[in-house]
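Field reference: sequence -> structure
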Amino acid sequence: MPHTILIASRRSGVSQVVIRAWEKRYGVLSPRRCEKGLRHYLEEDIERLTLLHQLTQYGYRIGQIAKCTNDELRALQAKGMPCREAVRQLTKPSDFIAAARQTLDSYDADKLRCVLNHALDTLGHRLTLREVIAPLIALTGEEWKDGQLGEAQEHLHTAVIRDFLAASVPGADVPVNAPEMIVCTPAGTAHELGALLATATARDLGWRVTYLGAGLPASEIAKAANARRARVVALSLVYPLGCELVAGEITKLRQLLPNNVAIVAGGRAAQSYCTALAAIDGIHWPADLAAFDKLISALV
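Structure field:
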């Protein structure tokens, strides 16, 4: 029985955008099309996408394996993944953080991906986000600010973490009636990893999330929230600290949103705004990712 690209995406863990890109750039599949021109995927197509997804998650480049048959992909999977042996002994969150940080010294993006995906296999999605990814983002942010990390290392870290956080969560199909959340960073800010971390966390907890990216003015955030009938707008505040422009944007956003829409503002710089904006109702200031988890779980 043929399946739509939506079903193929959900079952394989590969986003529809990536499926189309892989087909166009690498020819990984040539799905049949129905009379209306829509793609139809067979079981072997979905198996192929699943294998490709698993192998790329563990360090293989799609260009290296795109032309492999399904039998060859299964053989690669059975043989083991690049870097797997080097990280197999890692078991605790602190181990994964230390190993991930070391990969930046050698500019080894493939090994960083392998470390993070082994953490995912070992600890599970929730624990990996809370006890590996969040502390790692904080650690590298501080080291970059203090000059211990170079610009290229920070960019490498950001690119790999962004891809990791953007990946689909297996089995995390969002119910039709799931509550809506908007996630972004306000105008005057540019660091988006915290927002992506919030996005992955909220989706894992059953929210339907619209991620808008970084540096949006309050008026645009409010338009999106109203159009999506969002219950929560989550803002990531990493840098700068205590900026009047950013504080003004948060204040304006609160004025533009309906009273029943909560604003959740977190991140390394959040507390520098909390005191100045404490008198404004409807803004929540979770201290860390665990507090964010608890708060949005209560708001469902």
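Note: The longest strand covers residues 208-216.
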